[in-house]
Every structure is written in C-alpha cells, then in structure tokens.
Amino acid sequence: MRESVDPRWAQLKGRSWDCSSCGETHLGLFDLGCARPDFWQDSEQPLPNSAIAGSTHCLTEDFCVLDKQHYFIRCVLRLPLIGAPEECLGFGVWSTLSEKNFGKYIETFDSGEQEDLGPWFGWLSNRLKGYPDTLNLKCRVHPQSGRQRPWLELEPTDHLLAKESREGITYERLINIYAAYGHSVGPAQDGDD
Ligand SMILES: [Zn+2]
C-alpha cells in the first residue's frame, strides 16, 4: 500500500468533541462552508432559493447575482484525507459562472438532473482561511444530479489549495484549517459515553 491508514481520522470521526474555541459540541469530522461569495458585501442573510426568480441582485442559499452583472453558485470543494481512503473534508465555496451557464443551472435546479451540464469554467470566489490567497483561482464546475451541490476542480497549479485538493491533507493540516475557522480539536477524550 502506498499510503498507510492514520488511526486518528477514525478516532475523530467516532466521537463528539467539545470545542474550546467556539463552545459548541461537534460530531466527528464536519464540513466548513462560506455562506456567500466574498464579493457579496451586503449584510443580509441568504434568502430561500426561490427568491432568485427575476432578481437582479440577491443572495440565496445556492445562488447569488450581483448587480445583474456577476453570477455565482455554491459548490463543494473536497480535500481528500491522507490516511483515510475515500474520505474528504468538504468546503462549501462559491464559484462564478457565465450568465448563460448560470441561467441553465437555475433552470434545471429543481429537476435534480444536472450532471450532463458541465463542466463549466469558473473563478473561485472565496478567500479560504489557512491558505495563501485563494480568491479567483481558476476552476471547473461539475454539476451533479440528485440535488447535490456541484463539485469544484481547481486548475492543477502548485497553489497549496490546488495541491491539497489533488493530494489530500494530513491530520495536522485539518487541525490547522479548523483552527483558522475558530475550532479547536482537543485531545481524544477518555471514557465511554
Ligand atoms: Zn468549534
């Protein structure tokens, strides 16, 4: 085997842990997400997706139009876990789309049949913490069927995020990334619940 299994992933996955940074109790490994593209400066909370109809400036859970000029959708970037085959840390992030592709995406969203639409060109529209600047990294957007958010494939450069999306992250990197987002994975807790 090229890669040995890191038992810490299974330990993390199997427990709930009290986070000394945010004060919440987390269950195992959880995904991180950005509620809006970084270009969206208004403070309102995301609206239900239905609010996109006919709107020229709005943020919903999955769509964003900025001044009838810039179009974004919410996607998932997956970082494989080194030493935990077939598992990933998911990052909810936003990508731009052309107006035309954005229109197609919205049109077919409720059908749940979208896997044949892409891949589409996009620009990553969030600055992720724990990385050199990630805003406007080039990516390919892969729409999915079954109401799953599109997954993002980053241009295969040597940017750390692109590299980690191809090669994976170590357990130590996960701890760093969580820390950058205000979560502290403490030492494993003894005793059974
Ligand atoms: Zn936390």
N-end to C-end Cα span: 35 Å
Number of DSSP E strands: 10
Bound compounds, each kind once, are: zinc ion
Helix content: 10-25%
Structural shape = globular
Question: Major sheet: size, sense and barrel closure?
Answer: 5 strands, mixed
Instruction: Give me the side-by-side strand order of the main sheet.
Output: 3-7-6-5-4
As a whole number of angstroms, the C-alpha radius of gyration is 18 Å
Oligomer: single chain
Element pattern in H and E: HEEEEEEEHEEEHH
Total helix count?
A: 4
Helix- and strand-based class? alpha+beta
**Approximately how much beta-strand content do the residues carry?**
15-25%
- Estimate the mean pLDDT confidence: 92
Poorly predicted regions are: none
How would you describe this protein?
- The strands form three sheets. A five-stranded mixed β-sheet has the order 3-7-6-5-4.
- The chain has 193 residues and is of the alpha+beta class.
- The mean pLDDT is 92.
- It is built from four helices and ten strands; from the N terminus they run αβββββββαβββαα.
- The protein is 19% helix and 25% strand.
- The chain has helices at 7-13, 99-109, 160-167, 171-180; strands at residues 16-18, 25-27, 32-33, 58-59, 63-66, 70-80, 88-97, 120-123, 138-142, 151-154.
- Bound molecules: zinc ion.
- Residues 19, 21-22, 24, 26, 183 line the site of zinc ion.
